[in-house]
Amino acid sequence: MGLFKKSPEERAAIAELKAADAALHANQRREERAGIREETPEYLRLNATANEKAAKVSRWHGGTKRGR
To answer: What top-level branch of life does the organism fall under (predicted)?
Structure first.
């Protein structure tokens, strides 16, 4: 594979990360509009999911994974 080509697994992991981040940010906007300023169980669940997905994606593509 080339330097900038992603495997199907990498593309799937990136898509999952983007979906998890979108859900987390949508929840954040809803909670802000409702005046909620503390961490709710829903926020904690979505944040944990986003962190799990980020661990599978390289830092180059927005995740937290280092090396191979």
So the answer is: Bacteria
